């Protein structure tokens, strides 16, 4: 879980940096922005999934 949260924070900082220059981006740069956005969304889903699993596991014990 710590690894996912660490990745999320780092990718979020990169995403904010890319967002500030979105208007000046070329098509290739926008593609990179969309890939980073997709990775960020995937990390959010994985963090929620891991959190739910850990919560279920702790409730069973």
Indicate the topology.
Blueprint: H1 2-20, H2 27-60
Helix pairs in contact: 1-2
Tell me the number of strands. 0
- Kindly give the count of domains: 1
Structural class: mainly alpha
SSE string, helix = H, strand = E? HH
Integer-rounded radius of gyration: 15 Å
Helix content: over 70%
Low-confidence stretches: none
Mean pLDDT: 92
Judging from the principal axes of the Cα atoms, what is the shape? elongated
Distance between the termini: 19 Å
Largest sheet: none
β-sheet strand percentage? under 5%
* Individual helix count: 2
Keywords: Membrane, Transmembrane, Transmembrane helix
Transmembrane segments: 7-25, 31-52
Describe the structure.
This protein is mainly α and 61 residues long. The protein is built from 2 helices and no strands. It is 87% helix and 0% strand. The chain is elongated, with a radius of gyration of 15 Å. It has one domain.
Key traits:
61 residues; mainly alpha; 2 helices; 0% strand
Task: Write a brief caption for the model.
The chain crosses the membrane at residues 7-25, 31-52. With 61 residues, the chain is an all-alpha fold.
């Amino acid at each position: 879980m710590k690894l996912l949260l660490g990745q999320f924070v780092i990718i979020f900082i990169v995403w904010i940096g890319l967002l500030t220059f979105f208007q000046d981006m070329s098509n290739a740069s926008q593609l990179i922005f969309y890939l980073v956005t997709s990775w960020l969304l995937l990390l959010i889903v994985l963090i929620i999934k891991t959190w739910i699993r850990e919560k279920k596991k702790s409730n069973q014990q």
